[in-house]
Amino acid sequence: MAAYERGAGTSEIASADQKLHISFYLLRTDVRNAFADRPASHDRGDNCLRFRDPQKIDFTPVRDLRRATAATRGTAC
């Protein structure tokens, strides 16, 4: 699993290739909560975004979440 870490090994966002989809895990509660009311044009779990077809990944929400994570410091859940 690839992860974005800040500081002493604290992962804040991660991605993984699963059997049926690619997942992007949101490991910071503050960032997750900030994006909770955004319309979901993709499959979303409690703490992840799931994309079933790698050719059709919408990188806009992924980019926005990564930018929000990088812009502020927070506590990983």
Q: Gist?
A:
It is built from two helices and five strands, in the order E-E-E-H-E-E-H.
Give structural notes.
The structure is a single chain. The protein is of the alpha+beta class. The protein has 2 helices and 5 strands. It has helices at 29-34, 59-71; strands at residues 2-6, 10-17, 22-26, 43-44, 48-51. A 5-stranded antiparallel sheet has the order 1-2-3-5-4. The longest helix is centred in the C-terminal third of the chain and has 13 residues, at 59-71. The model has no long low-confidence stretch (mean pLDDT 80).
Helical proportion, percent range: 10-25%
Overall pLDDT confidence: 80
- Give the low-confidence spans: none
Radius of gyration over C-alpha positions, nearest whole angstrom? 12 Å
- Category by helix and strand content: alpha+beta
Strand order of the largest sheet: 1-2-3-5-4
Largest sheet: 5 strands, antiparallel
- Helix run count: 2
What is the total domain count? 1
**How far apart are the termini?**
17 Å
Reading the helices and strands in chain order gives: EEEHEEH
Task: Please outline the helices and strands.
Blueprint: E1 2-6, E2 10-17, E3 22-26, H1 29-34, E4 43-44, E5 48-51, H2 59-71
Antiparallel strand pairs: 1-2, 2-3, 3-5, 4-5
Question: What keywords describe this structure?
Answer:
5-stranded antiparallel β-sheet; 31% strand; 77 residues; alpha+beta; globular
